[in-house]
Amino acid sequence: MAEGRFTNPVVASLAGVKDFFAKQELESRFSDEDRAEEKTVLITGANSGLGYGLAVEFAKRGARVIMAGRSKIPEAGEQVKKESASEKVEILYLDLSKIETIHQFVQLLAKREIKIDICIFNAATALPGSRQTASGQDEMFLVNYLSNVILSQLLLSKGVVELKEEAPLSKMIFISSDSHQGATYIDYDEFGSYFKYGVSKGISNYSYFKLVLNTYATELSRRINRESTRLSINVICPGPVSSNILKEAPWLLRMTLKGIFRIVFKSPAKAALPVVYMALSPDYEGRSNEYLHMFNPKKMDPKVYEVHEGEKLWARSLDLLRSIDQDHKDYTDQADKMI
Ligand SMILES: NC(=O)c1ccc[n+]([C@@H]2O[C@H](COP(=O)([O-])OP(=O)(O)OC[C@H]3O[C@@H](n4cnc5c(N)ncnc54)[C@H](OP(=O)(O)O)[C@@H]3O)[C@@H](O)[C@H]2O)c1
Known about the structure:
By secondary structure, this protein is α/β, with parallel strands linked by helices. It is built from ten helices and eight strands. An eight-stranded mixed beta sheet has the order 3-2-1-4-5-6-7-8, with helices on both faces. It has helices spanning 9-20, 49-60, 75-84, 99-111, 139-157, 199-224, 251-264, 268-280, 307-324, 330-337, and strands at residues 40-44, 64-69, 89-93, 118-121, 170-175, 231-237, 291-293, 296-297. It has a single domain (9-337), classed as Rossmann fold (3-Layer(aba) Sandwich), CATH 3.40.50. The radius of gyration is 18 Å and the shape is globular. Residues 16, 45, 47-51, 69-71, 94-97, 122-125, 143, 175, 177, 237-238, 240-241, 243-245, 265 line the site of NADP nicotinamide-adenine-dinucleotide phosphate.
């Protein structure tokens, strides 16, 4: 059975408390001069928490910001405009638990000839247990892992994110969690299948799906950047963020953790800074397959870098998509060609 590092939400949150006091090695490298005037930045899950903080910070630094979200449309976009004093912000509908909306979203970007320079795969959910999506998968599996495969492959196959031969490269940044460290190997008996589970397995799956996501990001980088680096694909854990991630947790748990979140978890505005650093600093220009835990460079779990694991995940993800997303073969065909 697949298992993440934590099965108890209180223990998971206490690990976050330790992170709050950690030294931030590269923080002094981040500068007001890291600007984004020429950049178009796409952020998923941008209506809340870290995604919202990212939208404000990128907009303040001059970027054109496309917020993607399934709720608070257009309010969250209007609020970001106000806070950042920028008009170059819009919010578009994207529900990552509904595969068809991912297609519609990318089609809209392609139709409007929008080119994304920096894509932040931020959206995720922490559910108290299993929930089945209309396409038949577990919701956390689809939102926290598989939708990121669909979105990244569609952005590439429709040319919304372009591969480049020269700097500045386009960038994909996957928002992960350091809690992925120590999760088990990917379990292909469970992969993509729906079964019932409760809170402990939900907490465990949250960190386990981050290991799956990091393995995909590593494999994507390996396939695209085989000859030379043409797309910068990196992973970051923002550390503990005082966000809405626990909004679906049982009431008692939410109340218990609310205090911890308020006192020792970082505000979304502060937690956004290492992500913006990774996206804009010359320190990370032209680099791929890097991992930051807040402002600290680190290695991901060793399993993430095992080539055999990456290849197997790639093949199994495409097999699954061919069976559940049969009306759209073009992007899986294209992904098949990335070897
Ligand atoms: N909070 C932490 O301590 C912490 C620590 C490490 C990593 N992270 C990571 O940071 C990222 C942001 O999380 P957060 O803490 O800022 O939590 P959050 O406030 O709950 O934000 C999550 C975002 O994802 C969106 N989302 C969830 N399900 C979606 C769906 N089906 N379709 C589209 N969007 C969906 C949410 O939209 P709605 O508002 O509509 O639900 C929200 O905008 C996540 O990847 C999380 O794993 C968080």
